[in-house]
Amino acid sequence: MSDSIGPSPFVVSDRNLALELVRVTEAAALASARWTGRGRKNDADGAAVEAMRIAFDTVAIDGTVVIGEGEMDEAPMLYIGEKVGSGGPAMDIAVDPLEGTNLCAKDMPNAITVVALAERGNFLHAPDVYMDKIVVGPNLPAGVVDLENTIETNLKNLAKARGKSVQDLLLCTLDRERHEEMIARARAAGARVRLLSDGDVAGGIAACLDSSQVDIYVGSGGAPEGVLTAAAVRCVEGQMQGRLLFEDDAQRARAQKMNPGKNPDRKLDLHDMAAGSVLFSATGVTTGALLRGVRQYPHQAVTHSLVMRSKSGTSRFIEGHHNFKTKTWTPQ
């Protein structure tokens, strides 16, 4: 009989790739954790990039970095357009080898290593500009919040959808001067506000996880980080909108070139930023609301990771115990 029972090879491959991505973010976290609290953010970032690049060499994909450390002449590794993987299905890669370099350097919460993967052509090619973002979690009415609304309207609509009062809501945003008016208005409306010094990928994901207590993430941050956040939000069926913010015509032209035929000023929905089947992995470097940081011992370390698949909607928290006496790769 030609019919077969059981998962298709694509599904099996998809699942295997999800676990392979965890190894990539673990490697970057283990390498950068050695620089935690040393005040040398560039060394921490460089260690994460190098470790992630080496780990990608073992992943069975034909990968192209579309969100990376910059252009080829700006970044020696994991630059936009770089090919990674040992061969396999054509995939686009979005990476932030160390999200929160300052957090790692100062041993502050929420430094993480991040990778997202999608079938070729399904990630927004985002230039290194700011993006206005708004994120809420799953199981809410479509369009419950919108970038076009005032913060007061968004909080009121979200509170009603959650069966809460605005006073029960927790808003998360980056602690930046550009957000001061929005923060003041949110507090005046009654909401509590959690301020992050850095790390808006972790903040955006937190809005989708009940364990974080965050109800909504709002504010502007890096566009590449916005694509990574969108990948994670897709996996848990949350809601997100974004809009690229340009300082000049040159930045707008760059965005137009990267996404031909698209209006660079348009409001982006979740599928504009991350479409198709998406995989996401993050590993904690320093302990935060999302993940525990790397715990280091003389000959071993313990990592805490989150891996998600949009196809199944499954999220897994994985604790890895790494024995450096037997591990084939160890941080230098």
UniProtKB/TrEMBL annotation:
Pfam families assigned to the protein according to its UniProt record, in alphabetical order: FBPase_glpX
Instruction: List, in alphabetical order, the Gene Ontology terms for molecular function in this entry.
Output: fructose 1,6-bisphosphate 1-phosphatase activity; manganese ion binding
Instruction: Please name the GO terms of the biological process aspect recorded for this protein, alphabetically.
Output: fructose 1,6-bisphosphate metabolic process; gluconeogenesis; glycerol metabolic process
Q: Entry's InterPro entries?
A: FBPase_class-2/SBPase
Superkingdom is: Bacteria
Entry binding sites for Mn(2+) 2? D96, E99, E225
Q: Provide the alphabetized UniProt keywords.
A: Carbohydrate metabolism, Hydrolase, Manganese, Metal-binding
Which residues are listed for substrate binding in this entry?
E99, G100, T101, Y130, R176, E177, R178, D198, G199, D200, G222
The UniProt entry, under SUPFAM superfamilies, shows:
Carbohydrate phosphatase
A cellular-component GO term for this protein: cytosol
**Reaction(s) catalysed (UniProt annotation):** beta-D-fructose 1,6-bisphosphate + H2O = beta-D-fructose 6-phosphate + phosphate
Cofactors needed by this protein, per the record, are: Mn(2+)
Q: Where does Mn(2+) 1 bind?
A: D45, E69
Q: Name the family the entry cites.
A: Belongs to the FBPase class 2 family.
NCBIfam families from the UniProt entry:
glpX (TIGR00330)
In Swiss-Prot or TrEMBL terms, this protein is called Fructose-1,6-bisphosphatase
Q: Which source organism?
A: Acetobacter okinawensis
